[in-house]
Amino acid sequence: MGLKVYLSGEIHTDWREQIIEGAKGLDVSFSAPVTNHEASDDCGVTILGAEDNKYWHDHKGAMVNAIRTRKGIADADVVVVRFGDKYKQWNAAFDAGYASALGKSLIILQPPEHDHALKEVDAAALAMTRTPQEVVEILRYVLDGSLPG
Question: By its UniProt entry, which InterPro entries does this protein fall under (predicted)?
Answer without folding.
Answer: YtoQ_family_protein
